[in-house]
Design a protein that fits this description.
Bound molecules: calcium ion
CATH architecture of the largest domain: 3-Layer(aba) Sandwich
Number of strands: 11
Mean pLDDT: 92
Structural class: alpha/beta
Largest sheet: 5 strands, mixed
CATH class of the largest domain: Alpha Beta
CATH superfamily of the largest domain: Bacterial extracellular solute-binding protein, family 7
Order of helices and strands: HEHEHEHHEEEHEHEHEEHHEHHH
CATH topology of the largest domain: D-Maltodextrin-Binding Protein, domain 2
Strand order of the largest sheet: 2-1-3-10-4
Helix content: 40-55%
Strand content: 5-15%
Distance between the termini: 107 Å
Number of domains: 2
Amino acid sequence: MNKQKCTLIVFILLTLTVVLSSCGGSESNATAKQIDGQQAQQKIYKWKMVTTWPKNFPGLGMAAENFATLAEKMSGGRLQVKVYGAGQLVPALETFDAVSQGTAEMGHSAAYYWKGKTQTSALFTSVPFGLNAQEMNGWLHYGGGMALWKELYEPFNLVPLAAGNTGVQMAGWFNREINSLADLDGLKMRIPGIGGEVVSRVGVEAVNIPGGELYTSMQTGVIDATEWVGPYNDLAFGFHQVAKYYYYPGWHEPGPTLELIVNKQAFESLPEDLQAIVEGAARAINQDMLDDYTARNNAALDELVNKHGVELRQLPDDVLAELNRVTQQVLKEIAAKDSGFKKVYESQKAFKEQAINYHKISEQAYYRARELK
Ligand code: CA
């Protein structure tokens, strides 16, 4: 063998050694990944969910329970979520902080409760005279809303998901008739979010009190009036025993979206299939809750009026028009001072303008058409 041939053979052998050893490396990497993947597949995740609702409360509380049941079934028991009612693990209005800090992996709530953290959060629940449920779902899932919501919650270490909607709410329970704006003056009313800011401009003292404390607050005169949800939920709380008049429409909450918040590290620690299950189960309860309210509000209203003698009243047009005027002013003022709010507000406003044009000739025209005799 000459020197040249010998060098060539040594070169080939060295190359083969390098190739084989690197093959062996990637093989063991792949095996390690497979083992990691298998371990993640076998691992059982036991999570806690804190909520702002009484445990098992119809609609709102049941949406949280339904999420837990669905996620466990979809994952074959690999994701188990224990749901805590308001006050069981943390007080209702500490849900956001508890999930942000990892005390619980998840929370079910309404974003507008966190306006003290960021006032932009209100835009992800409901805006007075804003989008209804159908429109909110369109904006969130196909109009850029979810991306804006994720961006907003990122600094709080949270991943948000839309997880329920009540549909158009009621204006609320009052012990005096509202025939003009002057009748609102001096009322102490529970009304959260931007709606609270709006009524405070027309003389109402707006407060936020968790749902579970509302009945007693009305009964003892801590507040004179309250909004809550609609017939289905309001009947369950028994507001007809502590207030005489039930006003509509819920101008302040035309399509409130509930939120599921997930601690970011907890979400990222899940294997991809469980992440998809969390997202899919949230999307399912988002629709399911609206279906529940659509089916039950009718019967509950009938019971309130015909069995309990509740006096149903419509807010006068001039009161509604003034509340709408003040709403637009409040929204513009907040947007002028807060660029983060402005970005979301403008996205939602552009969507609303298009939705109004189309819904005028679809939903609205149809509602009118089916009443024609
Ligand atoms: Ca409400």
